[in-house]
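STRUCTURE:
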């Protein structure tokens, strides 16, 4: 019997299988979205490899669940979860959102302005801030949205999620993405309750957290 080695995490494999089935995804597809091969994901979901916080965060996004749920079912000890959840992260601010859901951002912007948020986000995450003293989103003025890098709009990763979206030959907005009525198109729900129908998107940046200023 080995001594001094860390015990394997007690993974709730069935919970992950159920969440993957709920999203109508295959494990291979989830592995692709997570950026790992299928064998690596199998090791993670069977407790043979420890899941990193960035992997838990990305898996939570893919499965539309909380990071805390992923960590709990991945067997991360309670004391470690509390430490992780309490540890703030500092993220560069790269743009802003106006009072009509319009987003202006530059992903390659410098890191002169940074904001501290109460989550552990992937290193590639960035922040944008509402600057909406008037308009329908004025209640969000000063709040921060943490977003992932722009990616191809695939239904598996963005449906029913709040995202920054670039409309093909149109503006960049922050909207909730819904399934469109035609293949390859999406409906977008806005803060005013109105819906844009059958929109073609160039790219999307999913929102992984929204926080008040300070």
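SEQUENCE:
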């Amino acid at each position: 019997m080995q001594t001094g080695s860390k015990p394997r995490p007690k993974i709730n494999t069935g919970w992950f299988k159920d969440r993957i089935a709920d999203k109508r995804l295959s494990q291979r597809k989830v592995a692709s979205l997570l950026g790992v091969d299928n064998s690596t994901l199998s090791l993670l979901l069977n407790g043979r490899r420890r899941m990193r916080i960035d992997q838990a965060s990305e898996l939570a996004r893919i499965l539309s669940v909380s990071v805390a749920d992923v960590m709990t079912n991945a067997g991360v000890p309670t004391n470690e979860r509390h430490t992780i959840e309490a540890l703030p992260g500092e993220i560069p601010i790269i743009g802003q959102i106006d009072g009509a859901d319009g987003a202006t951002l530059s992903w390659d912007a410098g890191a002169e302005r940074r904001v501290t948020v109460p989550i552990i986000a992937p290193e590639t995450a960035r922040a944008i801030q509402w600057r909406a003293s008037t308009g329908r989103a004025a209640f969000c003025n000063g709040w921060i949205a943490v977003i992932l890098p722009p990616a191809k709009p695939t239904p598996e990763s963005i449906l029913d999620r709040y995202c920054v979206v670039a409309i093909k030959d149109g503006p960049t907005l922050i909207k909730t993405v819904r399934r469109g009525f035609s293949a390859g198109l999406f409906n977008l729900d806005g803060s005013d309750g109105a819906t844009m129908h059958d929109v073609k998107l160039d790219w999307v940046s999913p929102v992984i957290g929204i926080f008040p200023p300070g």
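REMARK: The chain has seven helices and ten strands.
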